[in-house]
Design goal:
Bound molecules: fructose -6-phosphate
Low-confidence stretches: none
Radius of gyration: 17 Å
Strand content: 15-25%
Strand order of the largest sheet: 1-10-9-6-2-3-5
Number of strands: 10
Distance between the termini: 18 Å
Helix content: 25-40%
Order of helices and strands: EHEHEEHEHEEHEHEHE
Mean pLDDT: 96
Length: 252
Amino acid sequence: MDVIICKDPAEVGRTAARRVMEILRRTSQPVLGVATGSSPLDLYHELARAVGAGEVDLSNLSCFALDEYIGLEPNDPNSYADTIRQTVTEPLHLDPARVHVPRGIGEDLDQGCRDYEEAIRVAGGVDVQILGIGANGHLGFNEPGSSFGGRTHLQRLTEQTREDNQRFFGDRDVPTHCVTQGLGTIMDARHLVLVAMGENKADAIAAACEGPVTAMCPASILQFHPDAWVVVDRAAASKLHHHWVEPVGVTQ
Ligand code: F6R
C-alpha cells in the first residue's frame, strides 16, 4: 500500500487523476472502476480538464460503477446511474453505452448482480478502480462485517451510512438497501486508487492503513492488494502514525 499525503483536497484530485491516467494510457481498451460520493469529484474534474486539453484520450474507455441504491430508477437524480452520468460520462465525453452501473430496479436483482460480474469479466476486468471510504471504513457499500471474498450482491445499508448520505437526499429518505460490488470484485481490479479528505475520514483511514486487517473495517483489505494507492489530504491523514513516504517517480 502506498499512502500519499497531499496538502489539500485539490491536490488529492490532481495526484489521484495523474495516477489513474498513467494506468489508463497503458492500454487501448481501458476499463475504469468509478465511485460516487463527494470524494472523487476533484479527481473527475481533473480528468475532464485533461481530456479537454488533449492530455489523455478516453474515447475507448469503459466504466463500471461500484454500487447503486435499490428502488431508484436510473433517471432519478439521487440514483448513482444519474450521478455517474453527470459527474463522469458527460464531463469525460464517454460513450454512455460503455458506462455501466449495477441495476437497482426491476426483477431478479440477484441475476442482475451475476450479469454485472460477467460484464466486468467480458470487458477484461478493471484496470484501475477509484474508491472512496465511508466513515465506518466501508468500501463500495460493503459495510463492516462484509465478506472479504464477496462478489456483487444486495446489501442493507447501516444507519450511519444512511445518515452520512442524507445530505444528498434533502427531504427524501435514503434507501435502506443497495447493490454493491463485493470486496472480492473490488480486489480483482489490477490497480486501486482510494481518495479521502477531511477530518471525519481520519479514523477510517488510520484503521484501513495501519489497523489490523479485519472485516469490521472493510477498507483494511487494501493492505492485501498488490497495488493500492491511498491519496489523502492532511486532515484525513491526521491519525496516521507511520511515516509514509512518497513513492519513487511521483511528482506532486
Ligand atoms: C460510492 C461508494 C462509497 C463512498 C463513500 C464515501 O460509490 O461506494 O463507498 O465512496 O461512502 O463517500 P463520500 O465520498 O461522499 O464521503
